[in-house]
Amino acid sequence: MRILKACLFDLDGVLVDTAGYHFKAWRRLAQTLGIDFTEHDNERLKGVSRMRSLEIILEIGERTLPPEQMLALCEQKNTEYLLDVAQMTPAEILPGVVEFLKALKAEGFKIALGSASKNAQLILERTALLPFFDAIIDGRHVTNGKPDPEVFLKGAEALGVLPEECVVFEDAVAGVEAAKNGNMRCVGVGQPEVLTLADIVVQDLTEMSVARLRELEQM
Ligand code: B16
Ligand code: MG
């Protein structure tokens, strides 16, 4: 039995769905390199850093490039991606998110963001989700990407709670692994056959409630 005090949320795929925007920008960049990058390939980019995403695309195209050029390409992709982010509105928040965040606040849970994205704060601002968060840990604050638990351990620290008092909400396999590596409970958002290490899996946050969260204390 453990007492849960805080919820740590991944961003892309849990609170909002920016995967389509990432895909659009990466596909255009891949095209300029003569690499065929498909929607299926895009699954491999979820939850991983910008530079790692480019490395994966180059692997697919069996290409290598000097580090300076890779940095420039990451910049180029991000500039294009940000054009879409700039147009984002609260309409793009995924189902059940606002209701669940309000319920957590009402019950006194602390809330933090644990995302690989360096654009996380901007996306929370665009979607008006920022006021719900007591702490934001994102790609700017971590050196080790998921499945390393760094992003979630720093989140717990920023909230002043112990890792075992936290629940992580994640849509990526590497993110679920990161939560487990950090000794945290984990709610997978997606398919149970993919997120096999999660304690429970929901399709989206409409399936979550504080009562369901309490059940995780008994597991
Ligand atoms: P940026 P998450 C991740 O966000 C995305 O899932 C992943 O596709 C992206 O490459 C990564 O953020 C970095 O994003 O280029 O904005 O820094 O799922 O960890 O919230
Ligand atoms: Mg994600």
Fourth CATH level, the homologous superfamily of the largest domain: HAD superfamily/HAD-like
Rg for CA atoms:
17 Å
Distance between the termini: 7 Å
Physical arrangement of strands within the biggest beta sheet? 3-2-1-4-5-6
Tally of strands: 6
Determine the CATH topology of the largest domain. Rossmann fold
Order of helices and strands: EHHHHHEHEHEHEEH
Uncertain residue segments = none
Structural class: alpha/beta
CATH architecture annotation of the largest domain: 3-Layer(aba) Sandwich
Strand content: 5-15%
> Helical residue percent?
40-55%
Outline the fold blueprint:
Layout: E1 6-9, H1 19-32, H2 39-42, H3 50-60, H4 67-85, H5 97-106, E2 110-114, H6 120-126, E3 135-137, H7 150-159, E4 166-170, H8 173-181, E5 185-189, E6 200-202, H9 210-218
Parallel strand pairs: 1-2, 1-4, 2-3, 4-5, 5-6
Helix pairs in contact: 1-4, 3-4
Magnesium ion is lined by residues 10, 12-14, 46-47, 171-172, 175.
Quick structural overview:
This protein is α/β, with parallel strands linked by helices and 219 residues long. The protein is built from nine helices and six strands; from the N terminus they run E-H-H-H-H-H-E-H-E-H-E-H-E-E-H.
Description:
There is one protein chain. This protein is α/β, with parallel strands linked by helices. The chain folds into two domains: 6-17 and 90-218, HAD superfamily/HAD-like (Rossmann fold, 3-Layer(aba) Sandwich); 19-85, DNA polymerase, domain 1 (Orthogonal Bundle). The chain contains nine helices and six strands; from the N terminus they run βαααααβαβαβαββα. The protein has helices at residues 19-32, 39-42, 50-60, 67-85, 97-106, 120-126, 150-159, 173-181, 210-218, and strands at residues 6-9, 110-114, 135-137, 166-170, 185-189, 200-202. The protein has a six-stranded parallel sheet with strand order 3-2-1-4-5-6, sandwiched between helices. Helix 6 (120-126) links the parallel strand 2 (110-114) and strand 3. Helix 1 (19-32) packs across helix 4 (67-85) and helix 3 (50-60) packs across helix 4. The radius of gyration is 17 Å and the shape is globular. The model has no long low-confidence stretch (mean pLDDT 96). 1,6-di-O-phosphono-beta-D-glucopyranose is lined by residues 10-13, 22, 45-50, 53, 78, 115-119, 139, 172.
